[in-house]
TrEMBL record:
This is DgaE family pyridoxal phosphate-dependent ammonia lyase. Its cofactor is pyridoxal 5'-phosphate. InterPro entries: DgaE-like (IPR006337), SelA-like (IPR018319). The keyword Lyase applies. NCBIfam families: selA_rel. GO terms for molecular function: lyase activity. It comes from the Bacteria. Pfam families: SelA. Keywords: Lyase, Pyridoxal phosphate.
């Protein structure tokens, strides 16, 4: 069955994903090598615990880290990490994490500017794991001393979210959190879901680092947790508790393992290459009165370049929100990064966009402006 017939069979709209690797659009497409390993996984039986242990050991060796474990998603990785630190190896707490009260530390300290909604609030995942959030500092500033001031006998862990969703300026550095963790003997959890470097935060000294398997790695729906063996071993025990509702299938376990192997050995597309692909698109749109197009770098520091389009509503008699919505409502749904549409700007992320699709986006923007 062709892709087109799938769209026709279920009455689905075709989508051009110019918003980035977003969960609402299925995150990433998979390589043939990954699909083949998923097919092998789906066609055979395994002892799942053994499969998870062995693939985790293989990934840990590939990344040169102490331990690794595949989970169902990065969100699950947050909840399971918190739950595992609360219950440790106490089976009674694992079974009754939410139904009974235990006199154990539960507080997770997180910079206030990192308690963001990435599709659901970070706080929700912390609480799903049985934790209690303590926000350090303010939405536009969190210093090391703000974090340290909250540390007490109920503190369970320190957490940091590395994401474009978060406040970027005025935040405590990860190394400063690691230093505090060492000083007070507290584990440091890093949510690095969409980050591209799978070793950086582990090498900085973080105890648990969580990635999405489907974003930068371009694997199937899944999550990857790496870190110190004593913490990863505790996460594994959660399969008897809340982890049962977050189990990952054998085909996705093998698909992600293969994707990580390919990812670590691949030549990455650079920001400079993305910039070159955007040149014609930007030059064309800059010819339209009321539109300003330019290349911009990712504001969280990744080597990603996107096209930023600014629309002068007074000249065009329409605004960026209208344009972004019209792009989604066309025969082919075009999704852009429109979280700054209220400022008159949308961004075009072309990492998952072909040259043919980029031309469709260009033509559709011109059509919307001309039609209005």
């Amino acid at each position: 069955m062709s892709d087109l017939s799938l769209y026709e069979k279920y009455g689905l709209k075709q989508v051009i994903n110019a918003s980035g690797k977003m969960t609402i659009l299925g995150v990433s497409t998979l390589s043939e090598e990954v699909v083949q390993d998923m097919k092998k996984g789906a066609s055979n039986f395994f002892e799942i615990k053994d499969l998870l242990d062995k693939t985790g050991a293989y990934i840990a060796k590939t990344l040169n880290v102490e331990s690794a474990y595949i989970v169902s998603s990065a969100s699950a990785g947050i909840a399971l990490s918190v739950a595992s630190l609360i219950s440790k190896d106490n089976l009674d707490i694992i079974y009754n994490l939410h139904s009974r009260k235990y006199d154990v530390p539960r507080e997770i300290i997180l910079p206030k500017g990192h308690n963001v909604d990435y599709g659901c609030p970070v706080e929700t995942m912390i609480e799903l794991g049985g934790g209690l959030l303590r926000e350090a500092g303010y939405s536009n500033q969190c210093k090391k001393e703000h974090v340290e001031a909250l540390i007490n006998e109920n503190t369970l862990a320190l957490m940091y979210v590395k994401s474009h969703h978060c406040v970027q300026k005025g935040m405590v550095e990860i190394k400063e959190l690691v230093d505090l963790g060492e000083k007070y003997k507290l584990p440091v959890i890093i949510d690095a879901a969409a980050e591209e470097d799978l070793k950086k935060y582990y090498n900085l000294g973080a105890d648990v680092v969580i990635y999405s398997g489907a974003k930068a790695i371009e694997g199937p729906t899944s999550g990857l947790v790496i870190g110190k063996k004593k913490y990863i071993d505790l996460i594994k025990l959660q399969s008897q508790g809340i982890g049962r509702a977050m189990k990952v299938g054998k085909e996705n376990i093998l698909g992600l393992t293969r994707a990580i192997e390919l990812y670590e050995n691949s030549i990455k597309t650079t920001g400079e290459e993305l910039n070159k692909r955007l040149e014609g698109f930007i030059n064309t749109l800059n010819k339209i009165n009321g539109v300003e197009a330019k290349s911009v770098k990712d504001d969280s520091g990744r080597d990603i370049v996107r096209g930023e389009l600014s629309f002068n509503s007074e000249v065009l008699n329409l605004n960026a929100k209208y344009i972004a919505n019209e792009l989604k409502e066309g025969d082919i749904a075009i999704y852009t990064r429109d979280y700054r549409a209220n400022q008159g700007k949308i961004e075009i992320d072309i990492r998952s966009v072909s040259d043919e699709e980029l031309k469709i986006i260009e033509d559709r923007i011109i059509e919307i402006i001309g039609g209005k």
